[in-house]
Amino acid sequence: MQLEELPLLEIFNSLRHRHGLPLGVDDYLVVLRSLQAGFCISNYQEIEQLCCLVWAKTEEENRLIQRLFKQMWGHVQQATTSKSGNATKSASHLSQPDNISASSTETSLSLTLEPVQAVQAVRTSRLYRELKRPRYSLLTEYFPVTRREMKQIWRSLRRPMREGVPIELDVEATVVKMGREGFLLEPVLMPPRTNRTDLVLLIDQEGSMVPFHGLSRQLVETAQRGGRLRETRIFYFHDYPDEYLYCHPAFLDAQPIPEVLEEIGERTAVLIVSDAGAARGNFDQERVDSTKVWIEQLQQSVRYFAWLNPMPSECWRQTTAGEIARFVPMLEMSSQGMKAAISVLRGRYIVVKELDESLWY
Q: Are residues 96 and 204 in the same domain?
């Protein structure tokens, strides 16, 4: 098989580049390996459902994938009937799908490929090469924390608890039981461990945070898609929460702060993302005082919270951020800083010296 004929590659690349879905090579390989293992290959609908399950996060994305598959299946049927000389009238009216070629659709169910081929194909596809032109050279890997690092760091935010049906062997209890009874009729089982961590992201939006919107979106996407957390909730504010938090980055769907704090629970991990005024390099005492009131309110409701600042720590001096960092565990947005923030959210004590000798946590 030629690299450009890999199964479903055209649809996958169309979703990534033309429609903007945040998909990576890993997402493509999950589908391919499932098909190679024999899952969801009995009919077209099962393949389509598999791709929707892996690639779609919202109902809108789900409908988009279904539309592209409908076009592809129509093109497969059209190519097949054309070869047999029995093309039907209905097939002749099917629309050409976005960037889906006849050669790709004819081989779209062939599964003889290796993961290395998939990576090479995604990276050498025509759409990918177009994105490498200078006008499209703004890549997410330019961020201080890469998408891969974010996913790995999120997965360290764990609070495992045993719950559910007992299906795992409790070796210690089984040995004790066997020693007590002298024989073993049945082993002792226990429920599996599951991650019970709930995360709330509070993201500063607009104003001086505009240059960091891409970074904030990547934090949200990696937490929701790769964090393996029980629940992730996102709220937005501007400068500091006053009376409301917003469920939409355009400050829609307002929710009173007391109501949010009542819902999230004491053991919820809260991560605040804001430059805290460091981007403009100014000092605003009103913002410091209002933020302190809000933090005191937060402390009464949750046990663990931290603050990620996208500006380097050396830029906090003599700014609002530097003052806020004296009563909030504030870390800079870097791989090391994000790991430290996760440690705070896990309840681990850390010592951080960011600005001067008097600033310790």
A: no
Residue 157 within a domain: no
Judgement on whether residues 169 and 260 belong to the same structural domain of the protein: no
Concatenating the DSSP letter of every residue in 330-356 gives: EEESSHHHHHHHHHHHTT-------SS
Domain count, the chain: 3
Instruction: Kindly give, in sequence order, each residue whose CB lies less than 8 Å from that of residue 68, ignoring residues fewer than 6 positions away.
Output: 11, 14, 15, 97, 98, 100
- Angle at CA of residue 25, ends 79 and 160, nearest 5°: 130
Q: Let me know whether 243 and 334 are in one domain.
A: yes
159-184: pLDDT as tens digits: 767 777 888 888 898 888 888 888 88
Side-chain-facing half-sphere of 283: CA atoms under 13 Å: 8
Domain limits for position 169:
164-193
Residue 297, both tokens: 């309110």
What is the average pLDDT score of the chain? 78
Is residue 248 predicted with pLDDT exceeding 80?
A: yes
What secondary structure letter does DSSP report for 17?
A: I
187, 265: one domain: no
pLDDT of 280 > 70? The answer is yes
Contact 327, 288 (CB under 8 A): no
pLDDT tens for 326-352 read: 999 999 999 999 999 999 998 876 555
Judgement on whether residues 275 and 300 belong to the same structural domain of the protein: yes
